[in-house]
Design brief:
Blueprint lengths: L3 H22 L3 H14 L4 H12 L3 H18 L2 H17 L3 H17 L10 H13 L3 H13 L3 H17 L3 H18 L2 H17 L3 H17 L3 H21 L7
Helix pairs in contact: 1-2, 2-3, 3-4, 3-5, 4-5, 5-6, 6-7, 7-8, 7-9, 8-9, 9-10, 10-11, 11-12, 12-13
């Protein structure tokens, strides 16, 4: 049962998270950090901590991000909420991996799976799409691409619309490793279509950028340029100036190739 005070705290936390997102989109990290701290202070759930941990990680503040995510994990355990525990463990697994702490990363991956298993019922005895995707990513990092593809396919079968683009992007990476570049491009095209409908400008921009890279590798320069141009616009709309600049650099490089290789039948 949610008390009146908890409801007010949650509302304050949600408002602070919205303000933090707006500050991020305007490239105001100090203001975003202040709003994230306010959100964490008010939020009775781990949601604000997870969002703040993501912000710190993307800002290169790995140690601070780990502390925030570990606090969120402890909060989820106190609340005895299995989905929250699993989500926090997955976030920690990913961050420990990025920090080069593979044993800790694997430990939290296993904790996330164990948390989900504790919540299984007679009707549901399968890992979530989010868990299967992370298991697939770990298999890829360990060099087991066939297992990674099998796990990715299982993740795709259970993915919600909002999660589907992330799974498709991962499958595209695996197919690229196997030199299936055309199949990878098809996955990225579908990921972009899904992201356009169900995700924000940043995710849509990332899908377009990756699709541009895939098309460029297939010598489809004209189509790649369209993707890079659209990605730059999406990143600008999301306040991601650094990513927008990168997309524009790829656009300029591909345009230069277009000018010099325009008569090459292998290019376009």
């Amino acid at each position: 049962m949610v008390t009146a005070s908890a409801a007010v705290s949650l509302e304050l936390a949600q408002r602070s998270l919205r303000l933090a997102a707006e500050a991020e989109s305007r490239s105001e990290p100090l203001l975003a950090r202040a709003h994230f701290l306010a959100a964490v202070r008010h939020d009775p759930t781990p949601e604000a901590g997870l969002a703040f941990g993501r912000f710190l990680s993307e800002s290169g503040q790995t140690d601070d991000a780990l502390l925030v995510l570990q606090d969120s994990w402890q909060l989820a355990k106190r609340r005895e909420c299995i989905p929250e525990i699993a989500t926090c463990c997955r976030a920690l697994a990913m961050l420990f991996h990025r920090a080069g702490q593979s044993s800790q990363a694997r430990r939290f991956l296993q904790r996330a799976a164990a948390a989900e298993m504790r919540g299984w019922s007679d009707q549901q005895a399968t890992l979530s799409s989010e868990q299967l995707l992370l298991e697939s990513e770990f298999a890829e990092w360990e060099g087991d691409v066939p297992r990674a593809l099998a796990l990715c396919q299982a993740a795709l079968e259970g993915a919600t619309s909002a999660h589907r683009s992330e799974v498709l992007r991962h499958r595209a990476r695996l197919r690229t490793i196997q030199s299936q570049r055309l199949a990878a491009a098809h996955d990225l095209l579908e990921a972009a279509r899904v992201a356009r409908e169900f995700a924000g400008d940043r995710v849509y921009g990332e899908c377009l950028l990756e699709l541009g890279h895939a098309l460029r590798s297939l010598a489809r320069g004209h189509l790649a340029m369209r993707c890079y141009r659209a990605a730059a616009v999406r990143f600008e709309d999301a306040g991601r100036s650094r990513q927008a600049s990168a997309a524009r650099r790829w656009l300029a490089q591909t345009a230069a190739i277009e000018r010099t290789a325009g008569g090459d039948p292998l290019w376009n």
